[in-house]
Protein: IS1595 family transposase
Amino acid sequence: MNNSKFNSIISELGQLTDKQSRELEIALQAQDPIATILRQIESRLIEHPECPHCYSNTINRHGKINKTQRYRCKNCLKTFVATTKTPLARLRLKERWGDYFNCMLQGKPLRGSAHECGINLKTSFRWRHRFLTLPFQQKAAKLEGIIEADETFFAYSEKGSRELKRPPKKRGDKAGKRGRSSEDWVPVVTLRDRGKQTYEAVMPHVTAKKLSEELKRKLEKDSVLCTDGFKVYIKFSEDNELTHKRLNILHGVRVIEKVFHIQNVNAYHSRLKMWMQRFHGVATKYLENYLGWFRFMDDPKNCNTISLFKAQQQLNGT
Ligand SMILES: [Zn+2]
Structure:
């Protein structure tokens, strides 16, 4: 960019709204998320010294490894760096984390991400699953007001497992029962309130009791639950003192009293399904991780590398 163009940008900065200024600031920081986060982790250790091994507060600087400050604990004498015992610790190829995050944010497949970041497939797999577990832990703590609930189904998969729990289908075998046989499909129940708080649970067998256990203390009393009328929700609403609005979709009743419907949760499910397609089927044991990752990314304010790193740091602190 030439100087006069640059100068004209600078001269226009004064016209930015407060919101735009903040966005610009975030955009500029996001150019180097890794450095920013590492600086934050470093400075936190300096402000609140703590040995990750014995939690003693007396630590000393102890040389550098690959430009990274090393510390030694006076109490247990062990050495460590700022990222020791954090999920970032074993990701040694630090300079590639940012690229890898970007691949994940774009939903690129394992092999493509590995290729783009110059790492092998095994590392790509390990990194993905380490990062995937993060947003999984940030489900809505409380749902309130009008809450929409519905199920969606994912094909059961033992992809990537060495030992199959059930024999693989032979070519020419009948695909089994039509429809949603519990052997082939894993139900996911999603609840989403109008504040866009979202909670989802992988439930091999959806029953009122299991649903109540899963959602214990997470539903504000006197909330209104909107569903398609599946009988499990009837009992569940009674047990949890919720007003239940049953939509009879099959008979064309999609909205009751203008506000009660399940269109938000259904739209959420279609976005989720569309996004999952790019992974060409995920192993059922990792399904929750993918759901969590989608939930995190579906919230526009989370959709940048900075937020993902911040989420990670928060988890480190818990
Ligand atoms: Zn120590």
